[in-house]
Amino acid sequence: MRKKWIVLLIGCLLLGSICVVKISWKPNLEQSVIIIREAYQELELDSLNSTVYEYPIVPGMPEWEELHSGEKMYAATNIPNEILEKMNTEALIESILTHPLLFTSLISSADSEGKQGLERFSLSCTAVEELYKREDAGTILAYRLVETPINHYESNVFRFFLEKGEIQRYLSGKVKKAIQVYMRETK
Hints:
The structure is a single chain. It contains 13 helices and no strands. By secondary structure, the protein is mostly helical. It has one domain. Helix 2 packs across helix 10 and helix 2 crosses helix 13. The radius of gyration is 22 Å and the shape is elongated. About 3% of the residues have low confidence.
């Protein structure tokens, strides 16, 4: 009889531990914001160049009018690698936000959130390629989304990048969940 009780007790304990594993914690919106803020504060922000890139050729300039294809426009606006590598991630994000072709990519997109245009943009822009290499990019993008009063245009850009696997791979599970909750609750 005693063996049956022990077997029953062990079975209950195992079943209970399986049930506990199945339950996953999900933060609410307020907790998500706190998690994102804490993750940002824990970053050891690098001391690389914090200067936002100034594009030498932009729409409205005579040189821009001579660029008759998207390929030439991207070639003229891609930031040289030696500059990209020396920029800190915050300056890199700002340089992407001020890229002469970003807004055009968003508004020329067939979908309302600009994802198709942003996808094309991200494939052609060397700054985005560099952003995907940065381990702190997801945390900084999430912090900017939460803390900085931004317009709908910037919000769509941050959300687009935060959904990308290239950005998410460096985030902890807790921060990923917080970002997912925040993006879902504030859509």
